[in-house]
Design brief:
Largest sheet: 9 strands, parallel
Strand content: 25-35%
Strand order of the largest sheet: 10-9-6-5-4-14-13-12-11
Shape: globular
Number of strands: 51
Distance between the termini: 59 Å
Radius of gyration: 28 Å
């Protein structure tokens, strides 16, 4: 699996002298928040740990009976995952003769040492010479199915995650006679593998073969050709040019941000099943830089949203002396510097919660445009793409407005849109940046700067990213201008020219809206800061790419503890409420009780409005707007008072209309406005007022839980049409208990739990969940699984199943009480289950209680054993939660 260049790009590393109005080396500068795409997740342990290694002991160690040697060394890093290749030619060396010696030992000794195994199912076999050899052609599909079924059936109890092939987008590893059929062939492999694995155990998880480099267009084609819905996790191999640092090619802002946008559209998490740097070959880095780059890429990957990251590889190759990707030497045990640094990184960050990214250095900042008062930017789109740019108050990073850009990529080839104006910039700034509020569509972002010779320099600064404000910066020290010699460097003075959004892949078509605010130029070293928090202490992780500088951070402590990259510690005394630290290429960890960074929302309770929505056609109202809503409510809640949890609530709290693409009025006219009523526990809707009001489905309740968990606000029936949904941030609102509860999970915490394996019916429900969505084990309190729902592949806990099917409930029917089931079928009100049931610590009326929670498509159910019998099972207040998330206010 020796890697070729995954991204070949010309990289000019020219360090400009930092002079004039901006920064001198070792100048102390104050840190400033940069915003974060995925804050408030906690780095877990065990299966929840993000840290992994490509030990691949079965395929590469080869000394039977002593696999503990490499696996002890691997587990001693603190990593909790091992990617093991269970290659076809290894386990079936002769047709029909299976050999499990090496793979059994690798799997068993990994799991014994706390290393969860990602099983790699790889390659075709060539039996022409007798004993099988690996072959990279498309396998005969039935034979492949047998191989997958045999291996997975053997290891399913110990290996719960399976990766299908290695780098199928690469000709070297998936050698298809007709390259145009590569995506089609892999889609077929993926389908057969997924169906086979899920047929063995529906709780097993399927990972796509790691996409090499930046080949997302390959995965787009795989989805289009039948791969959609046939994997649970997107596997990627996000290598950069191997001699370059991750920051120099905007690793997190470009590669990972685009993978995350792609995964958000597919509704899947992302794992980097390989990444690393070589220390031996022609494009190698030295061992110290390898250590730095692995640690820095790990932090950037975590902050970008990667769930798992597997270093390639664990040890230097013992045969190919040009292969030095390992973090130990070829003897499997002698550590390289990267081993020590990686071990310290895991120790420092395990159990910590990521809070935000910050900029350690900002000097002499010069405003270019803040978009308050007037729009001075012109706009352009290369036809047939379109653009409309205007000031908007929907979102603003500062002040009351920002520049909203509504765009549509309509062309079959290159698509881009552009906004800007030429603004002279004094001095010699080292960077030009701005803030962007993205749309999860994945457009590339580019900054154009014109130098003193009127040459345009193009700086690719990353993806537009997701909703929420994030900073993007162009470092003016490395990109070359088109059609100029590689030695070309920017000449001062310079002018800001424009910002471009570019479709990726070329010819991709979509529409969306982003916001840009606070464009600026400034000086300062190329520094990076990431704030984590553990046990009430901040952990500020910092470094400089190819430079050095001094950073000042506000603190509440008299002194902070500074850890270097190897784990050595020292005390830093505070002065005037600040800690001053010298940083360079080597990562450091500063632990202290820090104050909020300038520009940060950490430590506050910002409004959870994520889509810029405003309730312009809604108002507080406790009355029913018509009989249809009231009669629908009466069936469930007329007799609820004192007898059971309200299904809706005792009365509405808001009503009016909301945008919906297919909404019809009583005259069958498409008004795009439907009637809605909000209750504590849900929302009622009448979408097609011209239909028969007596028909089932005339009054509905939305998929509020799905929207809150995914952040995908439904505005129409077709969620593939960007006009019919708005991609927002998942709701950081507690799913149960008091609004200020910090113990239990939030809706956003459940986004990664939708793919969890179903518990068998009758087995104990004992898993726990924390505020970040990490799982643990606790007391089942006698609760077991009650019913397995085959459509969503989740098991409903028995207290909830019994509640939903209780035949003794008093129901209102046409003015008369009737005894029967409230819900028929059971999913009539809640929808189908979309997670397993978990125990959580939840603050209820100021008291922390143990509560069982389970998410369904439309509702959340809770079970509190200490409640009275009639109210042990209750509906969550999802109507209130959703209204607050969507509109940012409470009635």
């Amino acid at each position: 699996m020796k890697k070729k260049l995954a991204i070949i790009c010309s990289l000019l590393m020219v360090l400009n002298l930092i002079t004039s109005l901006f920064v001198r080396e070792n100048y102390a500068l104050a840190a400033e928040s940069m915003g974060s795409p995925v804050p408030n997740f906690t780095i877990g342990q065990g299966a929840n740990s993000p840290f992994g290694l490509n030990v691949q002991s079965a395929a590469r160690y080869g000394i039977s009976g002593s696999f503990e040697k490499p696996l002890n060394a691997a587990s001693s890093t603190g990593a909790n995952w091992n990617r093991e290749e269970l290659r076809w030619d290894m386990v079936e060396p002769y047709s029909g003769r299976w050999d499990w010696g090496f793979t059994d030992e690798a799997v068993n000794k990994s799991t014994e040492r706390g290393l969860n195994v990602l099983g790699l199912l790889s390659y075709n076999v060539d039996r022409s010479g007798g004993k099988a050899q690996p072959n990279y052609a498309m396998p005969e599909i039935n034979a492949w199915r047998t191989y997958v079924a045999t291996v997975v059936s053997r290891y399913k109890d110990k290996v719960r995650y399976w990766e299908i092939w290695n780098e199928p987008s690469d000709t070297k590893y998936f050698n298809i006679a007709d390259p145009s059929q590569r995506a089609q062939n892999y889609a077929q492999l993926l389908q057969v593998s997924y169906d086979t694995i899920k047929g063995i155990d529906g709780g097993l998880q399927v990972v796509t073969g790691g996409v090499s480099g930046f080949d997302v267009p390959f995965m787009e084609e795989v989805l289009a050709r039948g791969g959609n819905g046939k994997f649970d996790i997107l596997g990627v191999h996000p290598y950069v040019n191997f001699s370059a640092s991750p920051e120099s090619k905007y690793w997190s802002d470009t590669q990972l941000a685009y993978f995350e946008a792609f995964a958000a559209r597919a509704g899947k998490p992302v794992w980097a099943t390989e990444f690393g740097w070589d220390t031996r070959g022609s494009i190698a880095v030295d061992e110290s830089r390898q250590a730095n780059y692995i640690a820095r890429a790990s932090v950037e990957g975590l902050a970008t949203g990667l769930q798992k990251m597997f270093i390639y590889q664990f040890r230097d190759d013992g045969v190919n002396l040009q292969d030095g990707y390992g973090i130990v030497r070829s003897d499997w045990v002698t550590p390289k510097p990267s081993y020590v640094v990686y071990k310290n990184l895991i120790a420092r960050l395990t159990g910590a919660t990521f809070k935000e990214r910050f900029e350690p250095f900002d000097a002499g900042k010069v405003a270019i445009d803040s978009f308050n008062g007037a729009n001075n930017f012109s706009s352009y789109a290369n036809a047939p793409s379109t653009i409309s740019a205007y000031l908007s108050g929907d979102q603003a990073h500062s002040g009351g407005t920002s520049l909203r850009i509504d765009y549509a990529f309509n062309g079959d080839a290159s698509n881009y849109i552009q906004v800007g104006r030429q603004v002279p910039i004094d001095g010699q700034p080292t960077k030009v940046g701005f803030w962007i509020y993205g749309d999860n569509k994945g457009a590339d972002v580019r900054v154009l700067i014109k130098d003193a010779t009127n040459t345009l320099f193009y700086y690719d600064v990353g993806s537009a990213g997701g909703t929420g404000w994030q900073r993007r910066e162009a470092w003016l020290s490395g990109e070359t201008a088109p059609n100029t010699p590689p030695s070309s460097q920017i000449r001062y003075p310079i002018k800001f020219d424009s910002i471009q959004l570019i479709s990726r892949p070329n010819g991709a078509k979509w529409s969306g809206s982003v916001y840009i605010d606070d464009v600026y130029a400034s000086g300062g070293a190329r520094g990076y800061g990431y704030r984590f928090e553990r046990n009430g202490k901040n952990i500020d992780v910092m470094w400089v790419d190819n430079g050095s500088g001094t950073v000042t951070l506000p603190t509440n402590d008299a002194a902070g503890t500074l850890y270097d990259r190897s784990g050595n510690s020292s005390s830093i005394a505070a002065k005037d409420g600040n800690l001053t630290v010298n940083i360079n290429d080597d990562m450091v960890f500063l632990e202290h009780s820090g104050k909020v960074l300038p520009g940060s929302s950490a430590g506050t309770n910002p409004s959870p409005v994520q889509c810029g929505a405003r309730p312009t056609s809604l108002s507080p109202n406790t009355a029913f707007p018509n009989d249809w809503f009231q009669n629908f409510w009466k069936r469930y809640d007329f007799y609820a008072v004192g007898a059971r949890s309200y299904v809706w609530g005792d009365k509405p709290f808001a009503s009016g209309s909301e945008y919906y693409y297919q909404a019809l009025d009583g005259n069958a006219q498409n008004t795009k406005q439907r009637q809605v009523v909000y209750f504590d526990k849900s929302r009622m809707e009448i979408t097609r007022a011209s239909s028969n009001p007596l028909a089932t489905g005339y009054v509905t309740n939305g998929l509020l839980t799905v929207e809150l968990i995914t952040g995908k606000m439904q505005l129409g029936d077709n969620l593939d049409d960007p006009l019919q949904f708005s991609q927002c941030s998942p709701a950081s609102v507690p799913i149960a208990g008091d609004p200020d509860d910090t113990f239990g999970p939030k809706y956003a915490s459940l986004n990664g739990r939708r793919a969890d394996a179903a518990k068998p019916v009758g087995s104990a429900v004992s898993e726990t969940i924390d505020s970040s969505g990490n799982l643990g084990q606790g007391d089942s309190r006698g609760v077991v699984g009650g019913y397995y729902e085959p459509i969503t592949k989740h098991t409903i806990a028995k207290p909830f199943w019994d509640f939903l099917n209780d035949p003794t409930q008093r129901i209102w029917v046409n003015g008369n009480p009737v005894i029967g089931r409230l819900f028929d079928p059971y999913y009539e009100a809640p929808g189908l289950p979309i997670t397993e049931a978990y125990w959580a610590k939840v603050k209820v009326a100021g008291q922390v209680k143990d509560v069982l929670v389970q998410a369904f498509e439309r509702r959340v159910l809770t079970y509190t054993p200490t409640n009275s019998a009639a109210f042990k099972v209750e509906w969550g207040n999802i109507g209130r939660h959703y209204f607050f998330w969507r509109y940012g206010i409470s009635y």
